């Protein structure tokens, strides 16, 4: 009987060791989700920095046709990763990682000047709770999609970028379906996964106070960076530092 108990205890110890190893696996995969009214090209500098530091970085080019479609696009990328993954979301991308982050392969979440919703909240409900200022948002002729007037883009989105870079972001923006902004979140992944938040202190697209409030509610580790809504492009080194720190801590 003692031998049987010893064998069972050994199996339990081995299983615990495997579980611990899985939880503490090194995080080298980083999947980035860009925000609405933008595309993934603005993340090039930050991506190159992270790759030089040994990370495998993938950027999700979500269609912005609906929150469900964007979460599905992220899950397709997650399916390609081998090992634990850190999700990074900018702006509306925070809505996507909050929903998709419940995937068991996700080790943690990083919100970069992003919405960090709780259950039942939408981008519209959050944005209207603490307005950031005047954004010249226009509708397409069919009334289904929204975009930021290219002439007003720099001031609202990328005030600290060189004019040529801000103009490129304005002209490469992906139009967002209205229903993506009104979709409500299910169970937020930050309730069960560690999270980090970058507050862009000069943000004119999302009120910095709203970014602080959402991060505090989620218990996120907060870093404040002086930068516009496009802080990932204007301060890529500092943003990469936060992502690297999150990957290191999520892997412990």
TrEMBL record:
Superkingdom of origin organism: Bacteria
Protein name listed in UniProt: Pimeloyl-ACP methyl ester carboxylesterase
Signal sequence residues: 1-21
Domain AB hydrolase-1 stretches: 30-242
Organism: Rhizobium aethiopicum
Keywords: Signal
Keyword RNA-binding attached: no
Pfam family, one: Abhydrolase_6
Taxonomic lineage of the native organism: Bacteria, Pseudomonadati, Pseudomonadota, Alphaproteobacteria, Hyphomicrobiales
């Amino acid at each position: 009987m003692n031998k049987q108990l010893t064998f069972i205890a050994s199996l339990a110890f081995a299983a615990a060791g495997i579980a611990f190893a899985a939880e503490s696996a090194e995080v080298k995969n980083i999947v980035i989700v860009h925000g609405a009214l933008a595309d993934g090209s603005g993340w090039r500098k930050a991506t190159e920095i992270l790759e030089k530091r040994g990370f495998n970085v993938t950027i999700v080019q979500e269609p912005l046709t609906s929150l469900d479609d964007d979460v599905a696009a992220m899950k397709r990328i997650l399916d390609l990763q081998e090992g634990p993954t850190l999700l990074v979301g900018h702006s509306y991308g925070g809505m996507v990682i909050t929903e998709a982050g419940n995937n068991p392969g996700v080790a943690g979440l990083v919100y970069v000047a992003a919405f960090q919703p709780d259950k039942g909240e939408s981008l519209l409900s959050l944005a209207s709770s603490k307005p950031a200022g005047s954004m010249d948002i226009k509708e397409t002729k069919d009334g289904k999609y929204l975009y930021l007037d290219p002439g007003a883009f720099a001031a609202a989105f990328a005030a600290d970028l060189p004019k040529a870079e801000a103009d490129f972001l304005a002209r490469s923006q992906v139009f967002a379906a209205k229903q993506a902004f009104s979709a409500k979140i299910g169970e937020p992944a930050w309730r069960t996964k560690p999270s980090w938040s970058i507050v862009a202190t000069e943000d004119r697209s999302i009120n910095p106070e709203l970014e602080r409030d959402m991060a505090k509610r989620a218990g996120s580790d907060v870093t404040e960076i002086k930068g516009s809504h496009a802080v990932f492009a204007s301060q890529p080194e500092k943003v990469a530092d936060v992502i690297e720190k999150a990957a290191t801590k999520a892997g412990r």
